[in-house]
Amino acid sequence: MSQSGQVDFDQDMTEREKMDYLRKQERDYQQRVRGANPCILPENVRGEVLGMMKKQEKVSARMLQKIRDHVQKWYHNEGFVCAQVVNFGNLNTNEVVCEVVEGDITKVEYQFQDKLGNIVEGNTQLAIIDRELPQQLRPGHIFNIGAGKQALKNINSLALFSNIEVNPRPDETKEGGIVVEIKLKELEPKSAEVSTEWSIVPGREGRPTLASIQPGGTVSFEHRNIYGLNRSIVGSVTSSNLLNPQDDLSFKLEYVHPYLDGVDDRSKNRTFKTSCFNTRKLSPVFVAGPNMDEAPPVWIDRVGFKANITESFTRQSKFTYGLVVEEITTRDETNTVCTHGSRAMPSGGLNMDGPPTTLSGTGVDRMAFLQANITRDNTEFVNGAIVGDRYIFQLDQGLGIGSKNPFFNRHQLTLTKFINLNKQEKGVGKPLPAVLVLHGHYAGCVGDLPSYDAFALGGPYSVRGFSNGELGASRNILEVATELRVPVRNTHVYAFVEHGTDLGSSKDVKGNPTEFFRRVGHGSSYGVGVKLGLVRGEYIVDHNAGTGTIFFRFGERF
């Protein structure tokens, strides 16, 4: 409620006039008290204040000071930083009225600024930003610093602004009111970037020459926030050899269209995305087992397009569904289309009668399939450590369109749980929590399965301590892992155990690449590690062979 004024008598007033004036002031005061908004102060805090008063025989300035501090402390601890006790009324009666200005939000104002802080006209439509405001930061609610921080996080997730400020200020037009002022600096809508890298290829006798030093790089561009509606076009072209780019040229062009149902329709949050792509990756299916000479590599080229819609149910849950159409070509190290995998013979020659690389047997497949993905991610950072749950289910359904009319159902389920063992709370300067990670991954396929889509077992994101595909390639796989992370001096040291198996399904892949390349189809590993910034240093024991190796990896395992 608004602050009451002090009683100020005119010197010429008679005693009767003074009494009438006091009665009028009292009526106005009672009317103002009845018209005030309900106070959000909980009953237990009111009881504490009442207990403080009962300990005193009469009202004193010191007691009122204690009451004010106690009430304001509760508001500020709960994040209501604009709340303050402004007056105590009815001091001449048997009750004391504590008048609190809680900080009711009267309006939200947006202000766009240039790099120098000058006010400018923004490109982004305000409805885009307004969608991201928590309900508690809208007019009619009490300003809360937690809601302000959430608004900051939500608006930042749009990736449209280089700087964002959310500040409360007094409303000069309404006593006790708060105006939420949001200041924004927009990123440049168009950008381009060129990055280069050099690779050294061994020449004769394994020694590099000047001619074998290959320049590579990526050219990328982005046009974001088209029409101020957060739509964007992003493209990139990459080659590891700019002197002969046709060998491995890859590209991607993507268009993103959020708010598919309209900016003002907040009942749904759907984003349309379409892209065309050309990628090349080394296949982990056609690799030799640990007791074989290295097999000739097989590269998988994919060119095509995909279109999907992502529907966000909450900020933690989303559902993506769409269509993928692609052409897959398998090539050997000379960039020639290859139809079968190969392995080295004891005589020094190559056995070319390996598993077929494609479903059609020609080295080139074409197919179309539907793809759906459900993700629920409740993870959060607690003092720099991930805690929470993450569940991902993906489904690919072949349509019988393409080479050999491929019809299949490919499905994957990944469950990961990060358990805060010591219930460490968030807070600046507080230590990392001890975390237990439980992880499981199942993948399977029913129907047509080309070799390049078989599930590879082994690798830094499958079973650590093995190279990609070293354990096998199969129709079904199951991977389980557990990791215990213990905080030591602002970082984590950890121990882990992992196991992966093909569930006996390697023989169900055409040509049985697991058997052809003498892989066992299952494996376990265990070890210890330490996080060094973005790098993980790990000592891993290959349980199959009983040997240990030190690895350094970037990023997270889970």
From TrEMBL:
Gene Ontology biological process:
plastid organization; protein targeting to chloroplast; protein transport
The record gives the membrane topology as: Multi-pass membrane protein
- Domain Bacterial surface antigen (D15): where? 225-533
Q: Which part of the chain is the Toc75-like second POTRA domain? A: 1-104
Does the keyword Chloroplast feature in the UniProt annotation? yes
Q: Which InterPro entries match?
A: Bac_surfAg_D15, D15-like, POTRA1_3_Toc75, POTRA2_Toc75
What are the entry keywords? Chloroplast, Membrane, Plastid, Plastid outer membrane, Protein transport, Transit peptide, Transmembrane, Transmembrane beta strand, Transport
Query: Which species expresses this protein natively?
Result: Zea mays
The source's superkingdom equals: Eukaryota
Q: Which family does it belong to?
A: Belongs to the TOC75 family.
Q: Where is the Toc75-like POTRA domain?
A: 106-186
Q: Where in the cell is it found?
A: Plastid, Chloroplast outer membrane
Q: Main subcellular localization, coarse class?
A: plastid
Q: Indicate what this protein is called per its UniProt record.
A: Protein TOC75-3 chloroplastic
**What GO CC terms are in its UniProt record?**
chloroplast outer membrane
